[in-house]
Design brief:
By secondary structure, the protein is mainly α. 63% of the residues lie in helices and 7% in strands. A three-stranded antiparallel β-sheet has the order 1-3-2. Strand 2 and strand 3 form a beta hairpin. It is globular.
C-alpha cells in the first residue's frame, strides 16, 4: 500500500489513515530544522566562548536595538515564552549585563536596560553572529537574499491567519477536543 503525499499547499485535502507529510515540500519542517540547527550551533559557540546561551544573545540583540525593553515586549517580538525571558533577564542582571527599572508610564512593568558590559558583550558576539549569517546565505545571490527576506517577512506577517485557520480547522474537525487555550483566544 503506498502512502499519499500532498504535493503543494493548494492540494491539501483532509488526510486519510495512509496520508503522510511530504518532508521534501513541507515548509514548516524546513523552517524548524534550519532554526533548530542554526540555534544549536550558535549556542554551542556562544556558551563556549562567551558563556551565554542563545536566549541571552536574542535578548541582547533586542536590547542593543531598543536600549531598554520589557520581558513582555521580548516575548511578543521573538515569540519566546515570557517566563523564559524573565529568567533570562534575571541571569543577565546577575552578570551585570542589564539593570531593571520600573516603566515610567506603567509603574507595575519592569524594564530591562542594557549596561555598558551588556553592550560590550553584544559587540563581541555580533561579529560571530554576522559571520554565521554570511556563511549561511553564501549560497544565494544578493537578489535572492532580498527575495528571501521579503518572503520571510510576508510569512511572518501571515502567522495570525495561520492561527485563525488552525482554530477553524480544530473547531470543525475536533469540536469536543478544543482546549482551554483556544477558548481563551475566542474571549
Amino acid at each position: 500500500m503506498s502512502k499519499k503525499k500532498a504535493s503543494k499547499p493548494s492540494d491539501v485535502q483532509l488526510p486519510d489513515a495512509q496520508s503522510v507529510v511530504d518532508l521534501e515540500r513541507y515548509v514548516p519542517a524546513y523552517l524548524t530544522w534550519i532554526a533548530n540547527k542554526l540555534s544549536r550551533g550558535a549556542s554551542q559557540y556562544y556558551l563556549d566562548i562567551f558563556d551565554v546561551g542563545i536566549e541571552t544573545w536574542r535578548c541582547l540583540v533586542l536590547l542593543a536595538i531598543e536600549g531598554s525593553i520589557s520581558a513582555q515586549q521580548v516575548s511578543k517580538v521573538m515569540g519566546m515564552d515570557k517566563g523564559s525571558v524573565s529568567r533570562c533577564f534575571k541571569g543577565m542582571q546577575e552578570r551585570g549585563l542589564i539593570t531593571t527599572e520600573l516603566d515610567k508610564t506603567d509603574g507595575r512593568l519592569r524594564i530591562a536596560v542594557l549596561t555598558p558590559a551588556g553592550r560590550a558583550l553584544h559587540g563581541q558576539i555580533l561579529g560571530m553572529a554576522l559571520e554565521r549569517e554570511r556563511a549561511f546565505l553564501s549560497v544565494l545571490g544578493a537578489n535572492e537574499v532580498d527575495m528571501l527576506i521579503g518572503l520571510l517577512q510576508r510569512l511572518h506577517e501571515n502567522l495570525p491567519a495561520v492561527e485563525v485557520a488552525t482554530q477553524a480547522y480544530a473547531k470543525k474537525h475536533f469540536p469536543k477536543s478544543i482546549g482551554t487555550s483556544l477558548r481563551k483566544a475566542e474571549d
